[in-house]
Design goal:
Layout (H helix, E strand, L loop, with lengths): L4 E5 L15 H12 L4 E5 H4 L3 H11 L3 E5 L5 H14 L4 E5 L1 H4 L2 H7 L5 E3 L4 H13 L9 E5 L2 E4 L22 H7 L3 E3 L2 E2 L10 H5 L4 E2 L2 H15 L3 E4 L8 H13 L5 E6 L6 H9 L2 E9 L3 H7 L5 H13 L3 E8 L6 H14 L6 E4 L7 H9 L24 H16 L2 H9 L3 H13 L10
Parallel strand pairs: 1-2, 1-3, 3-4, 4-5, 8-11, 11-12, 12-13, 13-14, 14-15
Antiparallel strand pairs: 5-6, 6-7, 9-10
Length: 462
């Protein structure tokens, strides 16, 4: 008999900042691979459905799955462990599995912290998860499945890594039909796609290389647009986000993708993220013609010294040029910034704040604080130096200071982030510009953001 699988997305902790729920692509791909191999599978998305622990208990009790797979980021790790415990209490015979970026680098600790957790799937999970389910169906042991960490004879055993999936086109599209789409679209009318995995860079704050490898593996333009067309026709969606770390790493491929969208006559809009050193004005023009309306960039800092500490591999001059092209073509630039990286001072932070106002004077992106996620060189550095002050993963929401350095205290970092938003949105030029263009929704957004920032701070420039 084929085992029944339930996949679970934990909710973010109460009060966690800026965590938008959406159908996680990781679970979507897992479900699609299982369905392709005729295994019964369903999804409980606690974030989208706003389920309490007791409501989850009821849901898992109704389904009585043989296998429960829980994903987790660092922010949802503790919640994920609680869901694993509940699943085991309701059905002691079920196999409990956790996967995702956090437990990939916290595998032995997760098994130590949660006796109810049976297996951790590390890195890409599609083939690993499928093999485990196939072995369960055949009545075979799963203790030596590559890509997993598990218990064997009372000891925690880390099996070898599984090779990465080279042919991403071979993966079925994520099984979005298993999500309550009407509830999902109450939050956002945008659907997310991933067209590549991996990266050739090694930014100190990012887990991508360790999670997906130091190589870009890319889907073909035809395969990507096949998915766009399917979603457009099936769910009546015309807004999309490509959530690749660097969408334009292969510029000829990006151009071909744009041509494919246009040749099929898809009337869609989309946004993407990329690096400032991987874009040209000509490519942006082609992207705009194919429906691109916004591009977000990892600007990270306006200080070259801090960028170098991050090993970002870009210059502030490249950032000015790239975002200038975006604004010139009428696209929306969205700069993502990280404040408080080791080496940051009050002076360099204010340099970044003013730099963002220069390159994106109409709409700011996101001011995040440097967060040491397990699996990143930043985490290793902060631990080694003894700078880590917060170990509660429920606080790792990229807005809460987690560590302090000899250059910047946690208190000062929190004030700097608040100051960044106040200074940007309370500029007379910002209000005048948006009033003149009748961008009242932008002004309303600014006031909403400011209303959620705690405390008052001086806006005097350092």
């Amino acid at each position: 008999m084929k085992p029944h699988v339930t996949l679970v997305n934990p909710a973010a902790p109460a009060g966690a900042a800026m965590h938008l729920p959406f159908a996680l692509l990781g679970l979507g791909y897992l479900a699609a691979v299982l369905e392709k191999n005729q295994y019964p599978v369903d999804v409980i998305d606690c974030q989208v459905l706003k389920l309490s622990f007791e409501e989850f208990r009821t849901e898992i009790g109704k389904r009585q799955p043989d296998v429960v797979g829980v994903t987790s980021s660092t922010l949802t790790y503790k919640t994920g462990l609680k869901l694993v415990k509940i699943a085991k209490e309701v059905n002691p015979n079920c196999l409990t599995i956790m996967g995702g970026p956090h437990v990939t680098f916290w595998d032995d600790k997760a098994l130590e912290e949660c006796p109810e957790l049976d297996v951790v799937v590390r890195k890409e999970g599609e083939n690993t998860f499928l093999e485990m389910v196939q072995r369960i169906e055949a009545g075979k042991s799963i203790n030596d499945v590559i890509g997993t960490t598990c218990r064997k004879d009372g000891k925690i055993v880390r099996n070898p890594d599984r090779p990465y999936i080279e042919d991403l086109d071979a993966l079925p599209f994520p099984a979005r039909h298993l999500w309550p789409m009407e509830r999902l679209r109450e939050y956002e009318d945008v659907l997310y796609l991933a067209t590549s995995r991996g990266c050739v860079y090694w930014c100190e704050f990012c887990t991508t290389v360790r999670m997906h490898g130091r190589k870009y593996r890319m889907r073909s333009p035809k395969n990507v647009v096949d998915e766009l067309e399917y979603l457009y026709k099936t769910f009546n969606v015309d807004k999309f986000t490509f959530c690749d770390d660097a969408f334009t790493v292969d510029q000829p491929r990006t151009e071909e993708l744009c041509r494919e969208i246009l040749s099929r006559g898809l009337k869609i809009t989309w946004n993407c993220g990329t690096r400032v050193d991987m874009i040209t004005k000509g490519l942006l023009m082609k992207m705009k013609e194919a429906g691109c309306i916004s591009v977000w960039f990892g600007v990270e800092s306006g200080s070259q010294e801090v960028l170098d500490c991050m090993k970002k591999g870009i210059s502030t001059e490249q950032t000015v040029k790239a975002l200038g092209w975006v604004r010139e073509l009428g696209l929306k630039p969205v700069p993502n910034v990280i404040l408080g990286f080791p080496g940051e001072t009050k002076k360099s932070a204010w340099k970044t704040i003013k730099f963002v106002e220069k390159i994106s004077p109409d709409d700011v992106g996101f001011y995040n604080v440097a967060t040491p996620f397990p699996g990143t060189p930043l985490y290793d550095q902060v631990k080694e130096k003894g700078w880590l002050r917060v170990t509660d993963f429920d606080k790792y929401d990229t807005t809460t200071p987690i560590f302090e350095t000899p250059w910047l205290s946690m208190k000062d970092l929190g004030k700097l982030r608040e100051a960044a938003f106040h200074h940007f949105y309370l500029r007379p030029g910002y209000f005048f510009h948006n009033y003149r263009k009748r961008k009242f929704w932008t002004l309303a957004t600014a006031l909403t953001i400011l209303s959620h920032l705690k405390g008052s701070i001086r806006l005097k420039l350092r």
